[in-house]
């Protein structure tokens, strides 16, 4: 059973371009969480999705950021018109349920660099 | 809102010795989970150990154990017989007990960088 797969591992974008980060959850997992890790910081929650639904986006910046988790295919975190402050590592985690006794498994992250 | 504080940005330990990493948290909830994650240079987040708040017994996983003091809102990680492979960033995290919504999200501290000296 493959783990959580994120790609690309590294992504370089120029200011103003769009960044698309993909996350394939573990097989059988229908809950996906996105986190952002700024340098020298812990991970900060961004958004929680189930298949075709956004459950909680309270940690997502109001502009330029969006996320989806379609019925088929990976979850996508999209950042439009990137700025230098978007440079960070973006992690995806997945779980089989949202229950309190469910462990979330993390991918290896995508390091976004905006130049 | 819940917060997690790790007051030690960096720690160092001699190989085979024991080290304790500190974590405190703030919450008004009575049911929750606490975690320690390890992040090596590969950036993979690896779950080291977890503790259910309703359990009085401290969790243990091989060389890793916790000292959970619910009243003091303290959750320290003890690593015994430290190995070179233990060198990494360690993050303490909090999660509300419940279903769905924001209750499933992890709240992380800023991390402690652990170095292991041979």
Report on the structure:
The complex is a heterodimer of chains A (115) and B (118). Chain A has no helices and eleven strands. By secondary structure, chain A is mainly β. In chain A, a hairpin with a 2-residue loop joins strand 5 (43-50) and strand 6. Chain A is globular and about 35 Å long. In chain B, strand 8 (64-69) and strand 9 (74-79) form a beta hairpin. The mean pLDDT of chain B is 91. Helix content of chain B is 0%, strand content 52%. By secondary structure, chain B is mainly β. At the A-B interface, strand 4, strand 5 and strand 9 of A face strand 6, strand 10 and strand 11 of B.
At a glance:
The complex is a heterodimer of chains A (115) and B (118). With 115 residues, chain A is mainly β.
Can you count the helices of chain B?
A: 0
Gyration radius of chain A, in Å: 13 Å
List segments of chain B where confidence is low: pLDDT < 50 over at least 5 consecutive residues. Answer: none
The largest chain-to-chain contact, stated as pair and per-chain residue counts, equals:
A-B, 29 and 29 residues
Order of helices and strands of chain A: EEEEEEEEEEE
Shape of chain A: globular
């Amino acid at each position: 059973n493959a783990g959580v797969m994120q790609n690309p591992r590294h992504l370089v974008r120029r200011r103003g371009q769009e960044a698309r980060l993909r996350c394939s959850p573990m097989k059988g997992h229908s809950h996906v969480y996105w986190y952002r890790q700024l340098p020298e910081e812990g991970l900060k929650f961004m958004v929680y999705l189930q298949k075709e639904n956004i459950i909680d986006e309270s940690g997502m910046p109001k502009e330029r950021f969006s996320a989806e988790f379609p019925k088929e295919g990976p979850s996508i975190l999209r950042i439009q018109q990137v700025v230098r402050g978007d440079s960070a590592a973006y992690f995806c985690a997945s779980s089989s349920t949202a229950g309190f006794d469910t462990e979330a498994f993390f991918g290896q992250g995508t390091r976004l660099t905006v130049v | 809102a819940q917060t997690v504080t790790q007051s030690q940005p960096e720690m160092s330990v001699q190989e085979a010795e024991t080290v304790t990493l500190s974590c405190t948290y703030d919450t008004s909830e009575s049911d929750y989970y606490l975690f320690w994650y390890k992040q090596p240079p590969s950036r993979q987040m690896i779950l080291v150990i977890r503790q259910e708040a309703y359990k009085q017994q401290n969790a243990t996983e091989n060389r890793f154990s916790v000292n959970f003091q619910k009243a003091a809102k303290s959750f320290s990680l003890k690593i015994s017989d430290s190995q070179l492979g233990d060198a990494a960033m360690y993050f303490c995290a909090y999660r509300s007990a419940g279903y769905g919504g924001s209750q499933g999200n992890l709240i992380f501290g800023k991390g402690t960088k652990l170095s292991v000296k041979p």
